[in-house]
Amino acid sequence: MDAETVDLLVIGGGMAGLSAAARVAAEGGSVVLVEKAERTGGSARFAGFVWTTPTVEDMRRVNPDGDPELAAALVAGFADGVAWIRSLGVECRPPVPVLGFGRGHQVDTNHYLDACERMLRDRGQEVLTATRTHSLVTENGVVKGADCLLPDGSRRRIEAGWTLLATGGFQGDPSLRAERIHPQAEDIGLRANPHSRGDGLALGRAAGAAFGRQDAGFYGHLMPAGVSLSDPARFVDLALYYSEHALLFDTTGERFVDETAGDHLTAMALLERPEARGLLVADAGVHREWISASYVEGIPGVNKFQLCHRAGARSAVADSLEDFASMPEEWGYPGTTIRDRISQFNATMRANGATTPGRLLDRRPLDEPPFYVLEAAPAITFTFEGLLIDARAHALSADSGGRHPVPGLLAAGADAGGLYRRAYAGGLAPALVFGLAAARTALTETPAAVGR
Ligand SMILES: Cc1cc2nc3c(=O)[nH]c(=O)nc-3n(C[C@H](O)[C@H](O)[C@H](O)COP(=O)(O)OP(=O)(O)OC[C@H]3O[C@@H](n4cnc5c(N)ncnc54)[C@H](O)[C@@H]3O)c2cc1C
Description:
By secondary structure, the chain is α/β, with parallel strands linked by helices. It is built from 12 helices and 20 strands. 29% of the residues lie in helices and 23% in strands.
């Protein structure tokens, strides 16, 4: 390799990209990291728990349609990822349960991301912020770096043995969301960094990488409908995690999902209902136990209903179920139908009967007034469809039907697809694990040796 060619070029300086770059630098390799924003870190700066399922069996249970090889690699690589974070002097707190089926550690992600960046600079490796990538450089089908646009407008070719795409997915691009997720996804809220707009996917696809899998879905949460998410503090404060204990009705006045399966799954289901909005109903019991409760151990709870109300969300407190009949017409929900559906639901729960849709976990009736009514809509955090990879983070080629790598090309984090299909078991952990896998590949493999 000539002197000007680095071992790894990383495009995207968030969780996956910084993890890969710092690991290569730590092991004595050379790396350039290119970040489009003024500052590195991406959505990872808002996140707090590195977690996934403790076993492969748990992963298969919650994510049965995800790629089994990637799922197993994620679970197998998790402990090493945590050890790597700790090796940088960053605290990973003792493990806690997450979402009922997962396990993980609270981590100061800002400390971690800054430690990665410091590692790069201390080892004399370049971090180029406010820099765009025009195109990948390819030679005989082998990716050999990229042509980048520096903040002063000049162009620079960065040659590399391996190039890692880690730009964080395509959730920031409304038209791509509409095309790849659902037509109604064009208008949903974005609860993530605004820069991840599918750049890595476009670069990868132009170099022959395969993209999939269709209908993979997205990770997101219910948020108060119509409330601006421009302040990132709202991404967590206004997320309606308590929906798992409430009832959600669409604009026809019907339930359509088992709310207790998880707020992130309900968010996906609501996207496909008329107008992608719904009425979330809690009673005094849910208010007392869940509206202000902590979602994950270690994170203090806030009164979400009150915060949403103050933020201007469509909301009301009803003293009795009868009040639903006088719901304002402009809300666009059939109040009497919703009143009747709540009464029927309560009777069924008291008789321990079956409902459609089901109610697996919290089967208490919602019958303690007052009722807290809030209009909710799905908001997106990151996309599950992406460049298909193998467990060593090689981007797989479209020509080979996803069987062989594109030589020289890697992908990780939300730019990588296949891991999850309409299911979720952590976002930081896959970015970390496959970022570190990309580093290992860059340090140990010769691109031309693969993909043939
Ligand atoms: C509010 C919030 C809370 C979250 N909480 C958790 C949590 O507790 N646990 C968890 O597991 N996950 C959580 N997540 C999800 C987690 O943050 C992501 O899954 C993770 O950051 C994905 O890593 P990534 O490297 O793919 O993307 P990111 O970390 O977002 O990094 C992508 C980077 O690429 C940059 N970029 C984009 N385009 C280009 C380009 N063309 N060239 C160069 N750079 C580019 C972006 O600016 C960004 O810096 C949370 C997310 C949010 C928003």
